[in-house]
Backbone:
């Protein structure tokens, strides 16, 4: 235990030493700003006492005094900009104590065991991470008074900093996947960080660095208005000074945070240490399942203007499926018999819905409130409302591009007509059949690249038309399903503008888009002519069900057709499923 105490003390001492180094940088900047004033005072006092007289000294006194005034004014502008700068605040779901009294009780008990101050509040983030965040800046202060919206600010307290412990931000997937004891073990080193955070030097150093960071961000923001050109010059100067100081602080700030983390980790070793090892395995598993759920399941829904309202509940299904498929994860599903951490919430469904909407805003850029083109979808509705709609939307886009190219219709016998390979047909002579698509890509015109380019252009146009300026709050408070649907004003962490901040999917090539659209057309034909059905796979997203079983072998035949113009593998696949390529497909 003595070794543990020594290690903790070393980490805390290192953090305090780095904090003092940061404060010395602030002091040096202040000294540099007042140096011309000090020199001017010395010269003026010397002249008043009969020393340093003469025209040359008088000129020097006035020049230094003028320089001192200018430097003081510039320093005041920079200092005010740094103090008033709005530091970056992570977008989260506020979780008041009345919405999670048991969770607050668990965190306070944990803080008592660790001998550190309890966090001032708890918030949720739609990610697999947890941290402490300082929100003592006036811009992050909630309104006071009964009935006040927890996300609005009080005008009377607009410029008053409140000294409080940091906010504990918890990854919402942890609450649904982890058990209560595992969550407590994972949060122990995070909560332990409130101890070093309470040290005055560390707190002051963090405020200084966050102020510099906010000033740099403010200076980089676009300026508009009639005096934009005049305002741009002082903003650029403030940004240059703040950036210079921020670069000087970089190494000290990094080492300070490492020292804080080391001290907190050592302090937390005495709390549930054995369980923490097991819980860390669940953290890795949760991250893997959450990533698959977002990229494979949630993203297709977001692209269709729907947002799954139970993402955190879905991650349990995804991780259970992952545990079933991966033999390395055997035994993890048996944990589901223990009490889940989401039981610590009064209304888990409301918290899940709020976190799901925030996830859509973060990772896709959806609006902050629901609307006709941005509505929630339950998992039971997902196959019909998302999967089938996605397939038919892409199939319709594919045929629109073919129509614009004047592509040939399919031959009556479903085969390939040599005379029709390169012919141009009237647009109204075509029908939406799978045979038309297959024959076009398997023809000798080399038009696959042209088709891919046309689809890419169509997708780009549709995405550009959908990117309308988004306004309104972005932090979604928890409360009886009303928060995500009422459109109430809430704390604006990002401000208006286009999102996402963290896009999940890199830009796709024309070939990839074409393959997706052809596969969608095949799925539509299978549903309409072979009795197949749209489905949901928790790890892979949209799935085609044939006879109640998922068919995951469609990708390779489609790629052979798209990339090589070889329709043989796809025709064999279609024959095995019983798809009629000559029958028209419903596109809407």
Residues:
């Amino acid at each position: 235990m003595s070794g543990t105490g020594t290690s903790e003390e070393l980490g805390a001492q290192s953090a305090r030493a780095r904090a003092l180094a940061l404060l010395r940088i602030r002091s040096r900047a202040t000294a540099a700003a007042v140096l011309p004033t000090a020199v001017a005072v010395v010269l003026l006092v010397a002249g008043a006492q009969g020393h340093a007289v003469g025209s040359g000294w008088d000129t020097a006194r006035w020049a230094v005094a003028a320089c001192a005034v200018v430097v003081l004014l510039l320093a005041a502008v920079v200092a005010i900009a740094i103090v008033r700068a709005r530091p970056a605040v992570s977008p989260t779901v506020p979780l008041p104590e009345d919405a999670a009294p048991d969770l607050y009780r668990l965190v306070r008990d944990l803080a008592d065991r660790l001998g550190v101050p309890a966090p001032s509040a708890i918030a949720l983030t739609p990610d697999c991470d947890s941290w402490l965040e300082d929100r003592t800046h006036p811009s992050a202060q909630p309104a006071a008074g009964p009935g006040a919206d927890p996300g609005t600010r009080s005008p009377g307290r607009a410029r008053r900093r409140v000294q409080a412990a940091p906010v504990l931000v918890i990854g919402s997937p942890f609450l649904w996947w982890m058990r209560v004891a595992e969550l407590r073990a994972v949060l122990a080193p995070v909560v332990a960080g409130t101890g070093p955070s309470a040290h005055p030097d560390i707190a002051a150093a963090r405020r200084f660095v966050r102020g510099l960071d906010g000033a740099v961000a403010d200076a980089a923001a676009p300026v508009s208005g009639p005096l934009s050109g005049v305002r741009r010059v002082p903003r650029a100067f403030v940004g240059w000074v703040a950036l210079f100081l921020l670069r000087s602080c970089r190494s000290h700030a990094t080492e300070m945070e490492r020292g804080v983390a080391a001290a907190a980790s050592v302090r937390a070793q005495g709390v549930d240490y054995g369980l923490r090892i097991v819980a860390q395995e669940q953290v890795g598993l949760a991250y893997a399942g959450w990533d698959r759920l977002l990229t494979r399941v949630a993203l297709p829904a977001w692209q269709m203007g729907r947002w799954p309202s139970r993402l955190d509940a879905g991650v349990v299904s995804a991780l259970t499926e992952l545990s079933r498929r991966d033999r390395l994860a055997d035994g993890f599903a048996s944990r589901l018999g223990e009490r889940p951490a989401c039981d610590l919430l009064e209304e888990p469904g409301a918290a899940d819905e709020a976190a799901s909407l925030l996830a859509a805003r973060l990772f896709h850029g959806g609006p902050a409130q629901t609307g006709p083109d941005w509505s929630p979808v339950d998992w039971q509705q997902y196959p019909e409302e998302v999967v089938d709609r996605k397939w038919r939307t892409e199939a319709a886009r594919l045929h629109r591009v073919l129509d614009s190219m004047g592509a040939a219709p399919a031959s009556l016998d479903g085969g390939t007509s040599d005379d029709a390979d390169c012919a141009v047909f009237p647009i109204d002579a075509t029908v939406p059949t799978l045979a038309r698509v297959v024959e076009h890509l398997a023809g000798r015109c080399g038009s696959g690249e042209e088709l891919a380019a046309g689809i890419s252009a169509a997708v780009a146009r549709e995405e550009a038309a959908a990117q309308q300026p988004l306004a309104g709050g972005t932090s979604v408070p928890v409360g009886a399903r009303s928060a995500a649907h009422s459109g109430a004003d809430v704390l604006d962490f990002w401000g208006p503008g286009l999102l996402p901040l963290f896009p999940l999917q890199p830009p796709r090539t024309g070939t990839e888009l074409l393959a997706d659209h052809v596969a969608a057309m095949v799925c539509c034909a299978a549903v309409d002519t072979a009795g197949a059905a749209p489905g949901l796979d928790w790890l892979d997203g949209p799935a085609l069900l044939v006879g109640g079983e998922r068919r995951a072998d469609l990708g390779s035949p489609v790629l052979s057709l798209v990339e090589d113009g070889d329709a043989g593998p796809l025709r064999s696949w279609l024959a095995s499923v019983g798809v009629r390529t000559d029958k028209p497909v419903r596109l809407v």
Notes: The chain has 18 helices and nine strands. The mean pLDDT is 82. The first helix runs from residue 2 to 48.
